[in-house]
Amino acid sequence: MQPAAYEDLKTRINRCNNDMEVALGNIVAEMSELSLKYQQILGYKDVAGIEKQLRDLEESLQKSRTELEQNLGYVKHTGVYAVLLENVDFYKSEKKDLIEQANQAITPRAVDDLVGLSIRRTSAVRDFAPVRDVILEVKNGEVRMEREYFNQPNHIRKTFLFLARVGATPTRQKATGSAPAAAGALVLNLDVDTGFRQKLQEKGVGEADIRRIEQEVLPFLSTIQRDNRTADSRQDYILQNGAEEIRRIEREIEDARLRLQTRSAKIGEICQELGVPFNAGSNFDQSVNGALQKIRDQLASLTGQWNEAVEQEIVYKETRTFVEGSLSQSLAAETLKLCQQIEKGYGQLDRMLQVTEVQDFELSRFESNRTVSVFRAPSRIWAYAMPRDDGAYGVAVFVQFRVTGQQAAGGSGGARLPFEPEMVTVEGGKFQMGCTAEQSDCDNDEKNVHWVQLKRFLLGKLK
To answer: Would 322 be classed as within a structural domain?
Structure first.
């Protein structure tokens, strides 16, 4: 071959190889994009786990609300009440019946004063906003008489005066089945109704009874007020802790819902790009598996395209030699040497990382340290000899390869190239290593006997 023709041949081969490199780059870019989609699907597909977490959080939220209601039910506020029953028929009513009527008359007022006032106070606190609905669910209160101070019937005026201390706790239950409050009853909260003296006098209560209230009952108001302040503090503490817990759970619920929505939307977007039907409901797993299979099929097709493209490459190598002895034998020896160099240098490629990432992705994690070794063997060889002006000869060898197999780095399998030694698989096992007690000629570094575990490995075969 003339030098000009040789240079023209190299130019055309370089141009073809450049086109091949562009094609390989496009294929690898598609593989990388599909690999990323595969990773995203595997990372986002655990929707069932988030749905279970969401259900558990909603149950925890309801449990926290229930516990808060129960704890609020233990907070008691106290009040001292005076009840004056009028138009009493003492011939038809026993004292116990009149006391019962007085208690019935106290109940609605005590619920409003002790429970309702507390609810109105706490519902207006900004920090308790997360539990405001729980506070406002309090519809009633349980009222119990804690102490009767005295009762005083007046047969002439047909009145019955009753003084007692009662405690009230909140409850969600509406009042049902209770007897109606007595008609013609005056109910006074001695802590709130500072004009109780005038009101009782207007109803004909004697000065002696009023002084008795002032002497025997009013001294207890300071203690009751202190207890109610303590109850307010306890109630605020319960509400504060409940609000923080409910706020925390609500944040986790919001985060879980957002993650669920994001994952479902991302997988739906990938399915749409792949042309796979997407259903976020009962067929979600079917959509996920369909998308994964579509990616595997496309990657298999791209792998075939990659193999076809790389087989278009032509590798050449040239040398300059002086002929010693037979011309044909000398040129043949140089040609064979170049062929071996090309085969050894270009017979294995490590350029298919994306494929391995996908094929090994059942572990659901990114293994960026793994590659695929692609083996290829010469399919066509061209050799050219060109005489030089100085008596030497130029020898050029052009080689086109075919893909023979591939294997993951560190694994086994794939075609063995001529320059590679034949490998024998040695199965792993467990054995004892070291110097035994029966052996007397042992060095210190050989003691003591210990167990050694080996994994399976490959060993070069020499014979």
So the answer is: yes
